[in-house]
Specification:
Layout: H1 2-21, E1 28-30, E2 47-48, E3 55-57, E4 79-81, E5 86-91, E6 101-112, E7 118-124, E8 137-144, E9 147-153, E10 162-163, E11 174-181, E12 191-196, E13 216-219, E14 231-236, E15 243-252, H2 266-286
């Protein structure tokens, strides 16, 4: 019995260490933990360029939707992207990603219906300007009857982008994961994918991973001229394009990198082990 108890505690401790080591290592994470009411400004985690008057730090954090309730949220606040022209970007890497995939996730909630389709965020080569149709991976935001919609677009992929088919509700939070594949469906071609509210079973290092079929996808259709990605930008468009909040912007090279999950504290695992040990002991005493 003593040996069994020691073994159980060792297993609990080892499990704890494994879970902790399974935490993703991300390339960039922005929780917008700055002064509420202030603008997202140059110097905040490397953000640079342009007017920031329409990119304000909100006074509250965003909560993941119920379908993603194991998602680990690190932000204290959200970024309120207000109607009006403004753009800011960050070279989040000094050595760009040049092959494989780059994943990008965030929480988003829209408080005003957009009247047109336009890009709201994107990734670019190191130091690359934000220009929408010429960007490797642009996240698009558009109007939909009774709400709004979200999609992706890539270089030469076609005007308007590719949108998921769900009409999204105003003032409701969604979790979005997007992906740029340097090779896409063939060598030398870029492809972008989007998943809306992937379920808990796919999230984190221990999940089943990236769902096989994205909710929206688009291929460049021409030889890919993008050789690297190391820059991320956020864009507030003109007054006709709605208003939204985003938080927990995370960039990595694997699905698990950008879908972190809540990991039990070591003390919780030890208590679980002790509880199981107690049940086994009580059962043996009854015998």
């Amino acid at each position: 019995m003593y040996r069994f108890g020691v073994l159980l505690l060792v297993v609990a401790g080892a499990t704890c260490l494994l879970l902790q080591s399974a935490q993703a290592t991300v390339l960039f994470q922005e929780g917008f933990n700055y002064t509420p009411g202030s603008n997202l400004a140059p110097g905040n985690d490397g953000w640079v360029g342009g007017s920031k008057a329409n990119l304000d730090i909100a006074s509250a954090a965003m909560t993941p939707p119920a379908v993603d309730n194991t998602l680990s949220v690190t932000s204290g606040y959200a970024l309120n992207v207000i109607n009006g022209t403004s753009c800011i970007d960050s070279n989040f890497l000094s050595s760009p990603v040049t092959s494989g995939n780059i994943y990008y996730s965030f929480l988003i909630s829209s408080s005003a219906t957009p009247t047109n389709n336009t890009y709201i965020s994107l990734t670019d080569p190191l130091g690359g300007p934000a220009n929408g149709s010429g960007d490797p991976l642009a996240v698009y935001y558009g109007s939909s009857t009774g709400g709004w919609k979200i999609g992706v677009r890539t270089t030469s992929g076609g005007s308007g982008g590719s949108f998921e088919t769900t009409t999204l509700n105003l003032n409701q939070t969604y979790f979005v994961v997007v992906d740029y594949a340097f090779n896409g469906s063939g060598a030398g071609y870029g492809q972008v994918n989007l998943w809306l509210d992937p379920p808990n079973s796919t999230l984190g290092p221990g999940g089943t991973g990236q769902p096989g079929t994205p909710d929206a996808t688009q291929n460049a259709g021409t030889p890919n001229v993008v050789s690297s990605i190391a820059d991320v930008a956020i864009k507030a468009q003109s007054v006709a394009y709605g208003q939204y909040e985003i938080s927990d912007l995370t960039i990595g090279t694997t699905w698990a990198d950008v879908t972190p999950v809540v990991v039990p504290e070591p003390s919780t695992l030890v208590l679980v082990g002790l509880g199981v040990l107690g049940l086994v002991f009580a059962r043996r005493m009854r015998r």
